[in-house]
Amino acid sequence: xxxxxxxxxxxxxxxxxxxxxxxxxxxxxxxxxxxxxxxxxxxxxxxxxxxxxxxxxxxxxxxxxxxxxxxxxxxxxxxxxxxxxxxxxxxxxxxxxxxxxxxxxxxxxxxxxxxxxxxxxxxxxxxxxxxxxxxxxxxxxxxxxxxxxxxxxxxxxxxxxxxxxxxxxxxxxxxxxxxxxxxxxxxxxxxxxxxxxxxx
Length: 200
Ligand SMILES: [Fe+2]
Fold this sequence. Notes:
Blueprint: H1 5-30, H2 34-47, H3 51-54, E1 70-74, E2 84-90, E3 105-111, E4 114-122, E5 125-134, E6 139-142, E7 147-152, E8 160-166, E9 177-179, E10 185-187, E11 194-196
Fe (ii) ion (FE2) is lined by residues 99, 101, 148.
């Protein structure tokens, strides 16, 4: 039997609250190391086992050509931190240049695929070091200094859905840097197209 929207919302919020609590416990125990981020990623990935709770008609994609073809609906409650967990919808063809976040970030696929390319910038120069196909249940955890670019796959205007979890809410990520091929940086402003996904 299919769930009502009210049942979906209740179940989803319960799972999101649970993941937020677990992340807090992981940080208490391990700090914010790469190992800790990977443990957090495992918790966030748990949500992707329930796409029916996240990929719903409550959340609408943007119209092509607006807000860089991206919208994120915030699903976690205020808890005194700046953390924000979103369900995001991006349109096929959307890309971002290589950039860092200056805060940690965890991305997990729900529906569709977003390719993440990872880069390294040091004295030796700027180069790509990895590529991860972030599809359903597949995640990537980034430290504040890790550099990635995104490349949304798919066809037409069928959105690619992800869970995105950040140390700081998207609108607070005003210190990100983007990189060109030589590793030169410039300011990379945040995408502020976020909406309330709890009371929408
Ligand atoms: Fe990013």
